[in-house]
Write a structure and sequence with these properties.
It contains eleven helices and twelve strands. The protein is of the alpha/beta class. It has two domains: about 130 residues, Response regulator (Rossmann fold, 3-Layer(aba) Sandwich); about 140 residues, Rossmann fold (3-Layer(aba) Sandwich). α5 packs parallel to α6 and α7 crosses α8. It starts with a helix and ends in a 7-residue tail after the last helix.
């Protein structure tokens, strides 16, 4: 009988030790993995979680809000201790964010803001990114006015809304009223190939009327640049957002690619994982609910400061 009790005690002790040593599991509900920016986020999340002694499950919503909700529900079933969300739309994930709160699971929003009770948002000021580009377009690139094509990621996501409307708010200022015309707006899902296809559509529709293309990310802008080059329209200016190193290379060449705004995918993901892990392990909350990383305009004047040949993104 004593031997039996001893076996039970040892078993419970080992179980307790195993439980204490088990790595916390966190989840990452990613919006998509269709461009280098998102893929860099995936790698940064895995590397940072491993460095913090956590396991991570990353699920790809493929830009489908229904799938993202299902992904998050499956993460709940897996027993995650914390959740990072790059939400397809700001409001679409609201029901599952509420569930996370009720279950005591902390949530960190990354890159795109979301609606609900979350621990922190980590990313750039999306609206300010658009304003910076609008100011550069109106003061430097097209000071006398001109015709612009917009290529957006998705009309329903907070990043595209901020980057687009922030830029448009500058065009709409009294001193700029009537000087600029938006020829057309195209959705290209932040994807380079789609950016190229949509630019081809814009070229077919508007041809030589186009003075500048403003894209909600650099991948789409690089695709648009390829389409313009194929059409021998090398004088059309291009602006993007994200600070992708291939965009920096084009800006350094002094050609049609004129500007981007830094949105370092590696940095924001590292910060997001660390904010989440600090709360899970030590109950430390960030000082500010909005953790805004540097929102910086990059042009030919400062691009060499930010370009790093060996960077992941």
């Amino acid at each position: 009988m004593k031997k039996g009790l001893l076996v039970i005690v040892i078993g419970l002790t080992l179980l307790s030790l195993a439980s204490a040593q088990a790595k916390p599991l966190i989840g990452f509900a990613h919006v998509s993995m269709n461009n280098p920016y998102y893929l860099a986020m995936e790698k940064a999340a895995k590397d940072t979680a491993a460095a913090r002694g956590a396991d991570i499950v990353i699920l790809n919503a493929e830009e489908d809000i229904s799938k993202q909700i299902s992904d998050i529900e499956s993460l709940f079933v897996k027993g995650i201790k914390g959740l990072i969300v790059n939400s397809v739309t700001e409001y679409g994930t609201m029901p599952v964010i509420k569930r996370a709160k009720a279950m005591g699971i902390p949530v960190v929003a990354i890159d795109r803001n979301l609606y609900g009770d979350y621990l922190a948002y980590v990313g750039i000021d999306q609206w300010r990114a658009g304003e910076l580009q609008g100011e550069y377009i109106t003061k430097t690139l097209l000071p006398k006015g001109g015709n612009i094509v917009l290529i957006i990621g998705d009309p329903g996501d907070s990043a595209s809304i901020g980057r687009g409307n922030g830029m448009l708010s500058i065009l709409d200022k009294p001193e700029n009223k009537g000087k600029y015309k938006i020829l057309g707006t195209y959705k290209a899902s932040y994807n380079q190939m789609l950016g190229m296809q949509k630019m081809e559509e814009a070229i077919a529709a508007f041809g030589d009327k186009i003075d500048l293309v403003y894209c909600a990310n650099d991948s789409m802008a690089l695709g648009a640049q390829a389409a313009l080059a194929n059409a021998k329209m090398t004088k059309v200016m291009i602006c993007g957002v994200d600070g992708q190193k291939e965009a920096y290379v084009e800006i350094m060449k002094g050609g049609p690619y004129k500007s981007t705004v830094i949105n370092n995918s590696w940095d924001i993901t590292q910060i997001a994982v660390n904010v989440l892990m600090d709360y899970i392990t030590k109950k430390v909350e960030p000082k500010d609910r909005n953790v805004i990383t540097g929102t910086i305009l990059v042009t030919k004047d400062n691009v060499k400061t930010y370009y790093k040949q060996d960077s992941v993104f």
